[in-house]
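Hi support team,

I submitted a single chain yesterday and got back a structure, but I'm not sure I'm reading the token output correctly. Could someone confirm the output below corresponds to the sequence I sent? I've pasted both exactly as they appear in my results page.

Thanks,
R.
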Amino acid sequence: MVDKPMSNHRTRFPFSINKLIFWSLISLAVILFFFVGSPPSPATTTTSSSHSRRSLRGGPQWQTSVIRSSTPSNPKGLRVLVTGAAGFVGSHVSVALKRRGDGVVGIDNFNRYYDPSLKRSRADLLTREGVFVVEGDINDSSLLKSLFKLVKFTHVMHLAAQAGVRYAMKNPSSYIHSNIAGFVNLLETCKSVNPQPAIVWASSSSVYGLNSKVPFSEKDRTDQPASLYAATKKAGEEIAHTYNHIYGLSMTGLRFFTVYGPWGRPDMAYFFFTRDILKGKQIQIFEGAEHRSVARDFTYIDDIVKGCLGALDTAEKSTGSGGKKSGPAQLRIFNLGNTAPVPVGKLVSILEKLLKVHAKKKAVAMPRNGDVPFTHADISLAKKEIGYKPGTDLEKGLNKFVTWYLAYYSNESGKKDRLSSW
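Hi R., thanks for writing in. Yes, this is the structure output for that exact sequence:
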């Protein structure tokens, strides 16, 4: 049974300015896709053998690694291409899939948005788990075609993206390159192969933008983005609808709410708060209008992974073949959050308790940089359709993060084995 079209939950652009912004983004993406589509240079170099195998693509050894990694150990297992596999969510999802018997191949460009060595460490862990990570960019059409020629992927877990709300003010083109042009390039490849894979991709809670109704529901309007990042994620949802409608690609979008946990992203508040508290540096805690607390629906990584796997397991097959649609295809969008917004001040208090260090705090007005004052997920649809049920409260999750953080960075200077566990 095909789910109700996502368009039932979408809000039309009621104002001409919204249409202008959206189609301007699409036009810019098309220009970049066709004329500036070369992938960025790798973030860093290394002499490790695993890095060499990832980089030297196309040869017999590379092909063997791809095929071996994609082969499920479970006879009923999936064959999944995970984009952004060396990223925070991508690495956790890849490990979870591999450990349950699915075949997994990753792809990542190891860009410089944050410390590439952390991504390399995650990739090394994936190698230990038997997951081969191809070093390359999703804008590289020939690379994607090579992978799909070698492997008949049943699913794509698309997690590659330019993340971060504030960074868009410094490097806006990177968001168009990855979140729009890269997504289109991936879908162009998927629509043309036979069989077409089912696609699950990461959207974001940021699409709710300036929405004041809480909790955020999939039925709410999402035409008021507060940042370029949010606008590109909203554009991705519209693009997904288009490829579903024209080519029969099975599409499931997941709106993540403030994901945190071990092996996380250094640009996230919980991560750099931990770093600065330990270094004795002052941390800034944003306040909203009238000194109201800024709150986030912090969601632990293990819960997000369960949601991703639930979406993959319930994804129906695409209905196209070789770029031609034979019938209606599944189109879904889900919130993945924790349903319990926590003020940022409380987050800091928990970190102080776990680190046993008093933080030097300064309350400041939230700048106009694309951040929003609160997020709160309504997860009733995800619970009903994919069995999503988060079970990790913030203190428990932060305790696991702090344990990992102290072990990882305390061993860094001594070059000890930081990869003993996931």
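A quick pointer for reading it: Confidence is low (pLDDT under 50) at residues 1-17, 30-48, 413-417. Let us know if anything else looks off.

Best,
Support desk
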